[in-house]
Structures are given as structure tokens and as C-alpha cells.
Amino acid sequence: MVAPPSAAPWEAASERDALLATKLHVPRPRPDLVPRPRLAERLDEGLASGLMLVCAPAGYGKTVLLADWARRGQQPVAWLSLDDGDNDPARFWRHGVAALGQGRPGLAERVGPLLGPPAPSSYEGLVTALINELAAEPDAHQALLLDDYHLIDSEAVHESLGFLLEHRPQGLHLVLASRSDPPLALARLRGRGQLTALPETAVAALAARTEGWAAGLQLAALSLRGQSDAAGFTAAFTGSHRYVLDFLAEEVLEHQGEQVRAFLLETSVLERLSGELCDAVTGRPGSQALLEQAERAGLFLVPLDEVRGWWRYHRLFADLLRARLQAEQPGRVLALHRNAAAWYDDHEMPDDAIRHAVAAGETAWAARLIERHFDELILRRGEGVTVQRWLSALPADLVRTRPRLLLAQAYLASVSGHKETVGPLLDAAEQAYLDGAEEPFEPTVGRASSLLVNVPALIAVRRGFLAQLRGDAEDTAALASRALAEIKEGEWLLSSTARGLLAMAERLRGWLAEAERALAASIAGQPALTGWHSYQLAQVQRAQGRLDTAIETYEQLLKANSVPGQPPLPTLGLVYVGLAEVAYERNELDSALGYVTEGITLCRQFLPGTPPVAGLVTLAWIRQAAGDPAGALEAIGEAGHAWRTTADLLNPFPAQRARLLLAQGDVAAAARWTHESGLRAGDGPRYPREPGYLLLARVLLAQERPFEALVLLDRLRAAAIAQDRTGSVIEAGALRALALAACGQEADAVNALADVLTLACPQGYIRVFVDEGPSMAALLGRLIAAQRAGQAAARIPLGCLARLQRAFGVGHGGPGPRSGTAPVAVPSLVEQLTSREREVLGMLAAGKSNQAIAGQLVVTLDTVKKHVSHLLGKLGAANRTEAVIRARELGLIP
């Protein structure tokens, strides 16, 4: 196997760098430019606001005005000329950061990695990092000028730019040039005095001179150069903009020599022009000289750099030239686009190559280009929106015949949350592969870094992911093995992915040692895989009860993927979540909160369209432990928006939500979930659903059915011991000790808890005990008493017992932060009330009958009668009424 490839997401070919530079270039003024000092002064004044909007129809001279202002003013201006491709938010912000970075060295290197790959689902994290970078130098003022913003129709771009405006640092000013009002919160910005627009009177004056079209004045001036009767010509210069355009352009074109006229028409198919490119498109040499000649003649040619390497036509003039070309030489248009596509293909600029290939009617060629560049755009640049735009430009019938395009659609559907469409797309890809002949395929990223390089292997891998999400270990393993059998020498990325999938199958089976070995072998230098696979590796180590080893795994990954002075990669989000999970288990709540906050922020960028479920679940338990049950429910509720799986190991939300409700006293809701999930105490539980069965055991204990719980827990514990799953042995063992106590087997319960603590204490387990509440605190107390009396079967280190006591709040003024419903000791009571007895007491005070209490608690009527009898005895009351009066005197109820 070859060594894993490495490539920075921000790496770009020199030709792409040159084109990006043209987008960041402030257009040079024309020699005959008429200065507009009053408008320039108004723009200077507008810098006091957060946003300046220069909005006018095509040809009014917006770009000319702003370019002149940018070059003459004292304010540093970061210029970005937008085009249709910037509707991909990853590309928009990559270019925006590059523009700002010209005046802030190192900005792109520090902020750029947040763009992925993969592309973030929300750009709030990126913009937040950008804001923080700019705010670090409050005295360094800079304007970001976005020209042609009307070309942007991406909601993601509008939202992220709106976020930047809402939280704009003091030194940043935004300037938008657009043909129409952008869909931003303009009314709110105006109300706050944060928006400046050019005064209507100035625009009206300009319109009066040129009938609303400043470009028409330039055309008129060009036409007048060859007129003997200037007065007569001027009199004819009337009518609508379109009429004026046709009339004057005809005059301008007719005055050009045949060579220049042909050159203008043929090169109008291009968005940008260079001498070499125009030579290739026209099939004739000498284009560089013709471009310079056209610029000197004022033929609406805008230079895009300082060295006359790239130009573009004024957009309106280009439209006219294209229309004239189509009318005069329709058969020539396709050939010109074909030549352009070939040049861009040779220079590794896929976006332009694909656009021209489609325009030339060469859709099969465009399809091959998409396939070749898919891995680069997705895995290295995170521009999924661009790939989706490419695919949408192809005929559906063509896409259905090309398995790689169908696999590209399946990938995009998966990462965008439309997983229900993935299976049918894989079926179609498999059929297309069987029906068609295999074509030569060389991805631009190389075979080692490509997913599409091997169609049968990728189909098996994607099917394996679907099986994994279902919790089907056998299908997952079979499909991973099928993929590995198909993978050829050197196809590193596919091999690593398949091995990771095989490891997950072993984890679903419960064979953790095998899963650990497979995951360790699958981890290498691919950033998009490393975070996920390392998180899963550490999860396996935690399941083995090795918390220290899991922390080492996380810390090694952070060290290997961190650059001093730069924010962490989004792919490391799950690593921070894992650190939070371990810190929470050790009751280090402040550290856990810090880790999980960072992890959730990064995961929102790393997992497009999917809430960071594991992080939100951990956050919920941290809030619950801190005495914020409402906040806990809010966090767990947000986690519920994720696409659900039937494997509780892979999607912790369903079982953890039910467990949280149980911890907050809603036994009925937790019991309802176990019933609806088809969990029964007599089942032979499989490891993928172990979290659900552990919850069922807790529900049975809450329902006063400890014998059923004990039978279930014995099976869970035996299975865990057989597979060396120490983490499960600890959790099932702790619940088993509670079940033994509830069955009246006090000595066995104490000894069972001691056995569990011998496993748990060396690794610092705390919350697995504390989260079970007062019943576990009471059992711990009995264990401590037995150890003091020399009656315990195993001797637990005093430091461990002290940490547990502190976590429970014993001897520190009441219950710990997580116990919530644990009873506060009442000195005048010889025997304290349990949490369930307090719950029943509250219902007695509310006047509920025994039958009603039984229904609400989901227990039998006899169980309620026992609780009431115990209450009367502990409170020294003869009946329910007297018990309620006595409880109020003691402050047990309001």
C-alpha cells in the first residue's frame, strides 16, 4: 500500500492563483475618466456606517466609481469581483478571506482551514473566527468591497454575510455594488444608522445625462469619432436603453477593422480573456496585441491586473457581442466554446472547462471532467455546491448512464442529510456500471486520494455505511470485505475507509479488541478520516474501560493536527467531544463544559446538515449535573433533529433522551420509550442496543420490579465479561448492585458494588455511580460502613470513596449537583425518606388517590400502598391527612 497522500486544502495551481488575483484586482481607471468628487466624498462619509450599498442598473458606472474611490481614498480596500461561481459559499469565503488577507498577512492561513474540507454546514464558525481575527486589530481599518453582488443568489452566502454585518468588528466596513437590493436586513441596518446608500439625486442626475445608462455615453463618444455630422448624430441618440445599445454598438463595430471586429465577436464567449486563451479559442496568433489595441481604443475592455495579462469585456458589451455572434455565425459558436473548454481543461481549471463544454454541447466531455475533478472539489476544497451545479447542468439521461456521477450524487445526498435517496442512487450506479463499458479514469488528485477511482469498491463502501447506520454488523462486515476485495494496489483512501468500516462492524459485534486493531490500522494522514476514526478508536477504548488510553488517543490527534496560532480544524470536533465525555465521567464538569462547547462548534462545521448529536447529549448531562434540567432538555431536544439510526451505539440520542427524562422523574415517558422500541426484559440483548437495555433495567428498578431487572442485568453483564467490555461491566454491575439491594439482598449488593469499584476506581469513574442518584448514594454508604467494620469482600481505596462521597454531596451540605431529587436529611426523622417516597408524598398532598398515583408512576397498586405505609411509619402519622400535615411541619413539602 502506498503512503497516504497529503495536500493542503488551500493548495492551488498557479493558473488558478492567477485567475484569483484578477478577482482581487482593483480595476484601473480609464484615461478619459471623469472624476466624481461629490460621490467620492459621499462614499468617504459612508465609512462611518457598517455597510455601504451602491445599487443601480447595469451600465450606470458603479464599478468605475468605486474603483476610482478605492484607488484615491485613504482607506485600505480589499476588492473582490464576484461571479456566478461564488454562489458556492466555500468558494465565496475562500475568495473573501483571500481579499482581506492581502492587507492582513497570515489571515488566510489562520482562518482558511475552517472552510474544510469537508465544507461546513454553517459558515457561522468561519465568520466568527474572521471577526475575531479582525477585532484583534481594532485600529487597522479596512473595507471589503464586493462588486457585482447581484450575481449571488445563495442563501448560505446571504446568511453568513448577514452574520458578519450583525457582528461586524469596528475596523471592518463593507461595500456592496449591485444591480438590485441584496436580501440582507437593510431595513434594520437603516434603522440603526448602519447603512449608507448613494443619494437618489446623484443617481437621477447621472440618469438625466445618459438616459439612465452611463455606458451609453461611452458608446456615443466612440461613435462620434467617425462622424462628420456630430450634431445630427447626437439628435438621433434617443430611445430606450436596448435601442441605444443596438444602435451605438452597430456604429462602434462598423468602425472597426475586420480583424478587430472578428476578434471581438469570437472572444465574446469568454468571461475572462488572456492572449494565450484567445489564441486557442480563435485559432489565430496575435491575440495579446489585439487585446492591448482594443483597450487603447476604449472598446469596453476592463483590465483585471496590472501587467495586462487578463481582461474582461463590460458585461453589457459582451452580451451584445454574443448576440451578434449568434446571429451572424451560429455554427461558429459551438466550436469557440469547444476550444475554450480544451484550453481550460489543459490548464486544470474545471469550472470554466465544464461550463464551456456544456455550452459546446459536449455533455459527455463535461461529465468526464466532473468525474475527474470530483475528489479534488469535495475532499480538498469542500465545494459541494459547485459540484451540484455541475451535475445540474447535465441531462438527466446522461447522468443515469454514468455510475461515477450517480455515486457523486449519492455522496452529496448523504452529506446534505438526504440519506433516504442514497440507496436508490447506489442501485442505479450499480446497474449503470454493469450495463456500460469501463472507461479509463485518472482523477486529478491521484488514485491514492480518490473515492471514485474504483466504482464497485465505492458502491460496497457506501452500502456498508447504510448497513452500519442500521446497526447491522453482519452486513457492514460483509460489505466492507467486499470493498476490500475490489480495491486495487495504491487506492489508499478507499482502503482506509473500508478498513474503518470493517472496524465499526467489529465494534457493533462487541469484539472491541478486533475493532481497536482495525481502527488503528485505518488511521493515517487523511484529515477528513482521522478525526472520525480516532474518535471511534477512543470510543472503543472507553468501552474497554481504558479512560486513560482514550485520552492519550485524543491528545495525540490534537497534537498531530494543531498549528500554533491557528484555530483547530473542524475535523477535530469529535475529538473535543470525546474529551468532554471522559471529563464528564470523571466528574470534571468545568473541563467537560469547555471541551464540549469547542467540540459542538467544530462539529457544526464538520458534519453538514447534521446536529452534533454526541456533543449535544454530553452537554445535556453536564447541564443536568449542574442543576439546569430545562437546559438539559433543550440540548437533548436539539440532538433529536439528527437522522436517527436503530443502533444506539451510533446514535446516542434516543436512549439518552429517555434516560434523561427518567433522571428528571418522568418514569412513564422512559417506560413508554422502551415499550415503543420493542425492548423486553426477557430478550437476548445485542450489543448495538445495549444502551437501550441498560435504560430498560433502570425503568424496571424505578417501577419496583427489581427481580426482572436483575435477570436482564445478569445477562448484560455476562455478555460484557465474555467480550472484555469493561466499560459495560462497570455500568451493568453498578445497576446490578442496586437491583440486589432492591431485592433485599443487602450483603450481596454491597459486595457487588465493591467488585465494580475495583474496576472503576483506577480509571476515575464517577458519574456512572452518581447519576443513579440517592439509591446508589445509600448503597455506597453501606459499603463504606461495611469496609470500616472489616466486613467488605474487597477493600476499596479511601481516595476513591472520598471522591464518590464528594460527588454525591455527602457531608457537604446536601446532595450533589446531579442528584437533583436526592432527599435532604431532616434531623427529626429517624429514617429518611427515599426519593420515590418524596414523590408519593407530593401526590398525597395533591389529593391523588392510590390508583391515580399508581397510574402516574406506572407501578402496581400494591406498590403504592407499600410506599404510603412506609411514609406513615417514617412520619409517625396515623393516616394520609396527618402525614401531609407532619410533612409540612418538617418542611418536606410547601
Query: What is the alpha-carbon Rg in Å?
Result: 35 Å
Number of strands: 7
Number of helices: 46
Overall pLDDT confidence: 82
Task: Determine the structural class based on helices, strands and strand pairing.
Answer: mainly alpha
Strand content: under 5%
**Shape label:** elongated
Strand order of the largest sheet: 2-3-4-1-5
> What's the story with the biggest beta sheet?
5 strands, parallel
In angstroms, what separates the terminal alpha carbons?
A: 72 Å
Q: Residue ranges: pLDDT <50 for 5 or more in a row?
A: 1-13, 199-213, 237-241, 810-823
> Could you estimate the helical fraction of the residues in percent?
55-70%
Supply database-style keywords.
894 residues; mainly alpha; five-stranded parallel beta sheet; two-stranded antiparallel sheet; 46 helices; disordered N terminus
Description:
The chain has 894 residues and is mostly helical. It has 46 helices and 7 strands. The strands form 2 sheets. The protein has a 5-stranded parallel beta sheet with strand order 2-3-4-1-5, sandwiched between helices. Strands 6-7 form a two-stranded antiparallel sheet. A hairpin with a 7-residue loop joins β6 (301-303) and β7. α44 crosses α45. The longest helix is centred in the middle third of the chain and has 18 residues, at 363-380. It is elongated and about 120 Å long. The relative contact order is 0.05. Residues 1-13, 199-213, 237-241 and 810-823 have low confidence and may be disordered.
